[in-house]
Amino acid sequence: MNLQQKLLFYKYQGTGNDFVLIDNRNDFFSKNDTRLIKFLCDRRFGIGADGLILLENDKVSDFKMIYYNSDGNQSTMCGNGGRCIVAFAKLLDIIDSKTVFSAIDGLHHAAINGSVVSLQMIDVHEINSRRKHFFLNTGSPHHVQIVSNLDTLAVHQEGAKIRYGIYGEEGSNINFVDQVDSETFNIRTYERGVEGETLSCGTGVTAVALAMHKNNNTKSDKVNIVTRGGKLQVTFTLENNSYTNVRLIGEATLVFKGEIRC
Ligand SMILES: N[C@@H](CCC[C@H](N)C(=O)O)C(=O)O
């Protein structure tokens, strides 16, 4: 892209996890321009977002999702971003109420009804239980830790300590969880690549629901998760020690669209 070109963007949010979405079906966007992506996500000098998502043509599905964290680097799957891109594809008339699209972790089936998007996540075959935490991959890597002081916890500080202390260069997202009732949990998440707390993280919400089920904190296959930015539900089937048919369900909405000079 040339300098000082106008770029059309759409800003979406899913439970307060916010994204810049760009229709890149004609392949104009400079995908390796880390500086540009970081600038667009900057809350003071740019549009402001936790991440940036490109919607592209795909040979085997309705469209392709390419996800970048706000640090400008391409990353692994984003669950809230996945729900937002389904709403975006509907706005662009690429899909109607059902879709299958490609992302870095494979094909995702999804359905949209009004502003509610139900997104199928990858199957989870392994949840590692450690003395004080769980680790699993729900499309992105997640550390899940039960705490009793969720409201007052210094999530940024504690999350960074664990992210760099345990997981080194590659890192992980860090979720802190507190049980509310037999099927409801409050969570707060430190996101890798944003390097701070976000209001919600969809792959993190999914990880918490599955880890809490695996640990017998809940017996329900419909788990409610309350994030700082709103409520999500995770449903799943447990077969042969694997979690399949995992769905992340909640609202995804357009906040505004605009043009930015960059
Ligand atoms: N916000 C996301 C997770 C995005 C990826 C994550 N920051 C990482 O790099 O692992 C979500 O909703 O899942």
Return Rg in Å: 18 Å
> How does CATH name the architecture of the largest domain?
Roll
**CATH topology-level fold name of the largest domain:** Diaminopimelate Epimerase, Chain A, domain 1
Q: How much of the polypeptide forms β-strand, as a percent range?
A: 35-45%
Largest sheet entry: 12 strands, mixed
Give the C-level CATH assignment of the largest domain.
Alpha Beta
Helix content range: 10-25%
**Ligand identities:** ligand LBFN2T5F
Beta strand count: 17
Compressed to H and E, one letter per element, the order equals EEHEEHEEEEEEHEEEHEEEE
Organism: Croceitalea rosinachiae
Binding site for substrate: 17, 69, 79-80, 173, 191-192, 202-203
InterPro entries: DAP_epimerase_AS (IPR018510), DAP_epimerase_DapF (IPR001653)
Protein name: Diaminopimelate epimerase
Write the layout of secondary structure elements.
Blueprint: E1 6-14, E2 17-23, H1 34-41, E3 51-56, E4 64-69, H2 79-91, E5 98-103, E6 106-113, E7 116-120, E8 128-129, E9 134-137, E10 141-146, H3 155-167, E11 173-181, E12 184-191, E13 196-198, H4 202-214, E14 222-227, E15 230-239, E16 242-251, E17 253-261
The ligand N[C@@H](CCC[C@H](N)C(=O)O)C(=O)O binds at residues 17, 69, 75-76, 78-81, 140, 173, 191-194, 201-203.
Family: Belongs to the diaminopimelate epimerase family.
Organism: Croceitalea rosinachiae
GO molecular function, one term: diaminopimelate epimerase activity
